[in-house]
Write a structure and sequence with these properties.
By secondary structure, this protein is an alpha/beta fold. The chain folds into three domains: 2-153, Peptidase M64, N-terminal domain (Immunoglobulin-like, Sandwich), CATH 2.60.40; 157-324, Collagenase (Catalytic Domain) (3-Layer(aba) Sandwich), CATH 3.40.390; 355-400, no CATH class. It contains ten helices and 16 strands. The longest helix is centred in the middle third of the chain and has 16 residues, at 193-208. The radius of gyration is 21 Å and the shape is globular. Bound molecules: zinc ion (ZN). Residues 326, 348, 397, 401, 403, 411-412, 414-415 line the site of zinc ion. The site of zinc ion has 9 residues, from helix 10.
């Protein structure tokens, strides 16, 4: 297991900035809540609040994120020396919205937040966004002084009083040394108490029985918040179904019927702050198949269905690994997602524009590129055409993968390696 983690090529070869965590940070978390506002042609960030809580469960050895798979980059610098001391990349609903028809003209507002270890001194911080052509736009630049800035503590009183409790499901080690996954239930009323408990345990077992999580079990923690909704079920505007729930999750996000997401990101994070967490998974009590996963943001799954085991590990692939969908026939409202002539940022797709920096090292020299999708190459890691919602011009690593097919515990070697590296990112040994 240790050998699996220590042999990570990518983490050794990227230019890491190795500074001592204690030189710059204290053992607390700083959360910056902000609004991401705009449409296809314009965007802006508006800071809403600074929040703080005890402890820091994120990485302490990869403070400058080694791989950027997201659309937004947050960077913090020591304000006196301008030494970069922390960065985090992630994707967001806003950037999906702006690729839709509505997003071309209508300005909309999305809640977002970023967590970082609490700086000891004043920092300069920046938000930048990247479009699908990798053009960088700086959205915001500001200072934060931990001694002067007004900060509220989380979890705040209302959430402490809501009878929310933390349930340990799988504990591999200390929070600061592990990837901490937190389940938050939505649409479970008090009458669904037993169902909620059994669902949380069931989804935990789906993750822990799937490779590579099962081999790295001592580096993973999974907890759940026991929280009830006023009403049972999930809102679906397409069927005029409206439910009062803990997180107000809803189907039909950005007009995509089975896209089940939560727009109340600050409330979601206020509740999550009750437990140590690096990533949040919403488990929604609904028989309607749906979900979604956004890199370093959060993911959702529905609890009922024959493929729940597959759905949770697929969505976690998006959330943790920044993995792209490898399928290419689907109801998807995003357009021009992988433009011609641009190498996708996602680790499991290529347009062959910069394949050297993708999984070329995993492809043997006698495998043709592109690789024909024939029985002879059924188990081969190669370069197969079709992926990222398009049949031509975008390539994936294998014929079959959990990011492409309805197959549980079947990540291709490229996706698996990416997830191993992510678990290493959160592991501080
Ligand atoms: Zn894959």
């Amino acid at each position: 297991m240790r050998a699996l983690l220590s042999g990570l090529l990518l983490f050794c070869t990227v230019g890491l900035f190795a500074q001592n965590f204690d030189d710059y940070f204290s053992q607390r978390t700083l959360r910056i809540d902000y609004l991401h506002i705009g449409n296809k042609h314009q965007e802006a960030v508006e800071i809403s609040a600074y929040k703080t809580r005890e402890g820091w469960t994120g990485t302490r050895q990869f403070l400058i994120e080694p791989n950027r798979y997201g659309d937004v980059l947050f960077e913090a610098f020591d304000s006196l020396t301008m030494i970069p001391i922390y960065s985090r990349s992630y994707s967001c609903l806003f950037n999906e919205y702006r690729t839709t028809v509505e997003g071309e003209t209508i300005v909309d507002t999305f809640e977002e937040c970023i967590n970082m270890p609490m700086p000891k001194q004043t920092i300069l911080y920046r938000f930048s966004s990247f479009d699908r052509y990798k053009k960088k736009t700086q959205l915001y630049e500001g200072y934060f002084n931990p001694k002067h800035e007004l900060m509220s503590s989380t979890p705040s009183k209302p959430y402490q009083m809501m009878d929310l409790q933390v349930m340990d499901l799988h504990i591999g080690g200390k929070a600061e040394d592990c990837l901490d996954i937190l389940f938050i239930p939505d649409g479970y009323s008090k009458d669904d108490k037993e169902l909620m408990k059994s669902d949380m345990r069931r989804f935990c077992s789906y993750i822990m029985n799937c490779s590579p999580y099962k081999e790295l079990a001592e580096h993973v923690n999974i907890r759940a918040i026991k929280g009830y909704s006023e009403e049972s079920g999930i809102t679906n505007p397409n069927t005029n179904t409206f439910r009062k729930t803990l997180l107000n999750s809803s189907f039909n996000t950005i007009n995509l019927d089975r896209y089940l997401m939560c727009l109340h990101v600050w409330k979601l994070n206020d509740i999550a702050d009750l437990a140590p967490h690096d990533v949040i998974v919403i488990i929604a009590n609904t028989a309607k198949y749906g979900g979604g996963g956004i890199f370093n943001f959060y993911c959702t799954v529905n609890n009922i269905g024959t493929h729940s085991d597959y759905v949770i590990v697929h969505e976690l692939g998006h959330l943790l690994g920044g993995l792209a969908d490898e399928y290419y026939t689907s109801e998807v409202s995003v357009r021009d997602y992988y433009p011609e002539g641009v190498e996708p940022v996602e680790p499991n797709l290529t347009t062959l524009v910069d394949f050297d920096n993708k999984w070329k090292r995993l492809v043997s020299s006698d495998t043709p590129i592109p690789t024909p999708a024939t029985p002879a190459y059924r188990e081969t890691t190669g370069v197969f055409e079709g992926g990222g919602y398009v049949a031509k011009g975008v390539f994936r690593p294998c014929q079959k993968c959990t990011m492409k097919d309805l197959l549980y515990n079947h990540f291709c070697p490229v996706c698996k390696q990416t997830l191993i590296e992510v678990i290493k990112y959160y592991t501080n040994d």
